[in-house]
TrEMBL record:
It is a multi-pass membrane protein. InterPro entries: Beta-barrel_TonB, Beta-barrel_TonB_sf, CarboxyPept-like_regulatory, Plug_dom, Plug_dom_sf, TonB-dep_OMP_SusC/RagA, TonB-dep_OMP_SusC/RagA_CS, TonB-dep_rcpt-like. It holds the Pfam family CarbopepD_reg_2. Belongs to the TonB-dependent receptor family. It comes from the Bacteria. Residues 114-220 form the TonB-dependent receptor plug domain. This is SusC/RagA family TonB-linked outer membrane protein. It is found in: Cell outer membrane. The keyword Thylakoid does not apply. GO terms for cellular component: cell outer membrane. Residues 439-973 form the TonB-dependent receptor-like beta-barrel domain. PROSITE patterns: TONB_DEPENDENT_REC_3 (PS52016). The lineage of its organism: Bacteria, Pseudomonadati, Bacteroidota, Chitinophagia, Chitinophagales. Keywords: Cell outer membrane, Membrane, Signal, TonB box, Transmembrane, Transmembrane beta strand, Transport.
Amino acid sequence: MKRNVIYVLACILFSMNAMAQLKITGRVTDAKDASPLPSVNIVIKGTTSGTVTNVDGSFTLQVPDAKSVLVFSYTGYSPQEITVGSQTNFRISLAQKVGNLTEMVVIGYGTVKKSDLTGSVTTLKGEQLMDKPVPNISQALQGKVAGVDVNVNSSTPGQVAKVRVRGIGSINSNIDPLYVIDGVIGADGNAINPNDIASIEVLKDASSTAIYGARGANGVIMITTKRGVRGESRITYEGNVNVSTLARHLKTLNSDEFVKVYNLAFANATKFDPNGGTWAPPVQLNHASLPKLFDVNDKPLYNTNWEKEVYKPAVSTSHYLNFQGGSDKSLYSLSLGYLDQNGLMIESGFKRYSARITVDNDVKKWLTVGGNFSLIQSKQNVVSDGNGSLNVPRMVSEEVPIVPVKYPDGSWAGNNDIAGLEGGPNPVHIAKSRDTITNTQQTMGDVYLLFHIAKDLDFKTDLGYNLSSSKNNFYSASDLPHLSQDQGGIGRVSSATNTYWQSENYLTWNKQVTPHQRLTALLGVSFQEYRQEVVLAETQNFLDDFFQWEYLNAGSVRSNTGSIGYRWAMNSYFARATYNINEKYLFTATGRYDGSSKFGANNKYAFFPSAGAAWRISQEDFMKDTKWISNLKLRASYGVSGNQEIGQYQSIAQIQPSTTVLGGASQSTLLPSYIGNPNLKWERSLQADAGLEFSLFKDRINMNIDYYRRTTKDLLLQAPIPWSAGMRNANVYENVGSVRNTGIEVNLNTINVQTKDLTWSTNFIFTTNKNKILKLNNGNADIFPGPNFLGQTNVLRVGESIGSFYGMTRLGTYSTDEAALAAEHSLKPGDRKYRYNADGSNYYSIIGRAYPKWTGTISSTLAYKGWDFSFDIRIVQGVNTAATFKHSTEDRQTLANSLKTVLDAWTPEHQNTMVAQVRSYKFTQDSHFDTWWVEDGSYIRGQNFTLGYTLPDAFNKRMKINRLRIYANVQNLFLITKYTGYDPEVDTFNSGYGANNAFSQNLDFFSYPRPRVWNLGVSLGL
């Protein structure tokens, strides 16, 4: 009986205690930017009871009574104590301590503290990225991240840069990184306004990229845009105006020099004519023959500098307005942007209008709803189109200086006015009468639901989309000789509509297993689909140039029409688990199971796993007395990611519509086009990474060092098949070959001086990459991938690197003493001398490399009171650039103008030279891609210099503003290089985005010069 009474009393006391418990909820955020803080420890003071925040910083906790004191603690943040009192819902803001280890880093499908990373991930904040005004993200990334090589190959307004993460890992498939914008996978990162970016994370090793499986082999660039903030609303404005000027010159012959070389070339023609004939020009360069061009004393009337006529100072402007605000439950942001970028080349330009809106709302304690929507509209006018043809950049060098832009009667002048010259229109005429205009509209965004299922468990479902349409309008006027005159004008319209949607659904479990151990697990499923439709129409022989592309019916010749549509889809399952033991031992395991419609029936799905581990040595007990080391971490990872970026339907046999003539009439036909390969599968990149991170002297010195080894297997190579197979496409995709990339990445940041008024910091980035082809097709025979320029320019050879230039070795020119040696090759003194094989055949070898051995960037920032000064100097070494423009400007006298280097050509009195004796083009020695063209492309560039002043707080208070900064900036201030062209960083054969253009890098056939840009800007915060 007594025992029963005690039991009843105990139950009553327990229930009374339970009834006294209070349930409280809340959210913990960063005091600086109001971003949520996951995994914050919350303990009831004096007890071991507590909880941790989930991924969005929220928590739920039972406390004994209103007098309970809660202790909020988070590594790298100052702890905070709060008495519960009568509140049941809390909003806690934690302030960061000195250091950045607690900085939240965006990774695939979540965030993590920087200190908890086991993979190689680099973070850039928006202000770091936009330290200079640039039109797109790819250009902004140059020199910012170790292991990320950015080539700004064209200065065409609106043109994007090539971005390569840890080298070239593929041959026939796309090698661009995967962009993820606010969770939308595969979006065009260059389409958004870079001012909208809050942060960028570059995922480089397999531990971080494997969560994207079949699309992560080339690295992943995660872009997080600006969202709303709690508290007082913010308004910011960014505006700038800049002037572009020509930074370097490609010197060509003036009028007197041209006449001298022209006449000398015909005089020398007799020497090289096998029949010994006497040669004279088709028309004499004098007043009698050309009265419009020469005075009565046979002196040229004109001395046109075509550089000055085409490359003129250009003024550009940019404006950006951003609104951010919110309450305890709702956040919003709205941004508007306008860019008007005018090119150094006349008539070229790019305009962009942008708008973006984001909303996040805590509808219920258990539900958060949000999303974002962006709209981009742009117009690009490309004047430098038609590489290799008589386009504007080429004619700047080849148009003869003795003709004007226009004659006094207003008619256009050109080489065509002089018999025997190559009749290209002058470059101003082309720029004014030939248009390539691309209008693009793009909408992108997502809608998400975040369910707080339990204290430690969240479920997020996200529907993202990316819709874009582009229309390309082209017209070439009927008065452009050798371009469109013979066709009576050419008009063309093409349009493409792209539709992409994704559904991402995943659970996140964030569990504090013990007071010293934390587990975060992720499990999800993804669906993606992409569609594209393209149509094309072209006509020629227009009634009048007035109609252009706006009325193609004005052209009487229907020369080309067509359309095509395709789609691909993916279905994926992914998982990730991270385990943290006492903030010392960190483990990550990731896996993704991808299925793609692009691959064969026998290989639709593949699994991409990875694992990573890190040891925070600085957290060990034996390091506690080492005060000068604030962070020391070792990490290592290994994993597999894939590459599926090839064309659609490559695994199946294809037929293609065509036409033929039957019975005197045109009939539609179907022709075998592609043989197909049902065993086609992903490329696989196996990557190992080892990293060391340390911070010294209270984070005054911070360094990251990484070594990586990435081997790509099962390369998607286009293997040739016999023409006898009857296919229009004489190759088929197969999985053969292997490529390896190895390298070292170093990022060193130091705070050299830090006082009340003065701060001086420096940053040094250093990267090496060694690329090696391990295996090719059966037999490992050399592959010549093109582009072809007077023969092969590149070779793929086992044991060598992708981007190897392939050509002949020029030794100089034959002297008069070597007449017999020259005759062995049917040549004469004054001809170019090459190395030959023992049997007398041409000797070809690897003569250069298109990708550098190492790159580096030195950056420094000096701030004194309200003043700040910063600079970036970029260093690229161990690389070659092929000046292929030398072919038509050194080897083609009497057809067009030449470089001034022909003044150093062979003469009987000057025989030690690399430039052959000038002569009529009829007897010009065959040009070869050789070592004289492949120059040292190494350089040191003064990339970015900025001087700014931020007005003092007293002024801001009087003006009722938060911040006002005025700055001046110059880009491309200087360039130190041995390269003789406009710029050693160039690609005139394929500078676009979205294709494997590894083989065209640093091939220069008349490039758009890189300008020096002078900028004045203002930043205003309200």
